[in-house]
Request: fold
Amino acid sequence: MREEEKNGVTKMKFRRLLRKKWMYPAIYLSIAAIVLAGVLWYQQQGNDLAENPNSDVNDQVVTDDPFGEDAVPVMESQEKLAMPVDEDSQIVTKFYDYDASEKDQESALVLYENKYYQSTGVDFTKNDEKFDVKAALTGQVTEVKEDPLYGNVVTIEHAGEVSTVYASLGEVKVEAGTEVAQGDVLGTSGRNVFGQASGVHVHFEVRKGDQALNPEEFFGKPLSEIDKAKEEAKEEAKDEQDADATEEQDDAATEGQEDPASEEQGTEPSKDQDNGAESGTEEDVDAPAEGEEGTDTGEGAEQGDDGVADDIESSISTTQT
Reply:
């Protein structure tokens, strides 16, 4: 009985306590204080990790594919463009660059059927001897063909819409669809009809989409540099177009300002011509015809004298009256 009485007293005290007006606000404030303290503690822990990067918590690199497939590392974008030949080879035909010197532009012209054509790549030769041609970058062989002008041609696609072309090959050692690594032998140098003057050589091109780029500017540089060059070329072309459009607008505005003056200058001679025409008409009217000058003048004088006499007589008669 005493325990029940004690429990009853405790419940009564608790109920009385809950009836107090300040009880519920106190409970809410206590909960808010606990939550705020937890948030501040969490932020403090994050700041400590940021200030101490060499702590026991190290970053972990996850190499496993969560979908159960093997992960393939992408390294092509970090690869640097290598020469497709050995270092003892030399360039006999350069890439035609409009900003290059006159000497380099002359060495970038290919004579074919008495006409000069601009080279879209570079030609490598080695004392007119055969040599191995290697892949300049890792990629996939997308095309192997025999061209009537360029000979055997191999095209390799790389990351970022970049492709390399190897033409004038004598022997081809790869097939379309083959995956090749940088430095793999694609074939040997040879001759072709278009570049007869180069002898035994290989014609090498670097393309970004459909645009041919100067390979010499990118040897030893990663593919990202080729992407930047493409973007810069687009920006330069856009700037040139904007500059041309601005010049055309300025010219049009200048012509528009000059037109009123030219119209005024054009109308003044017409006025003079009109004055001249009027004066000419008066002269024509005043001038008598040939052979009638004396006769018309005499008749006019007689009529004038008769009129004067009549006027005098009329005035005298009026006075007398």
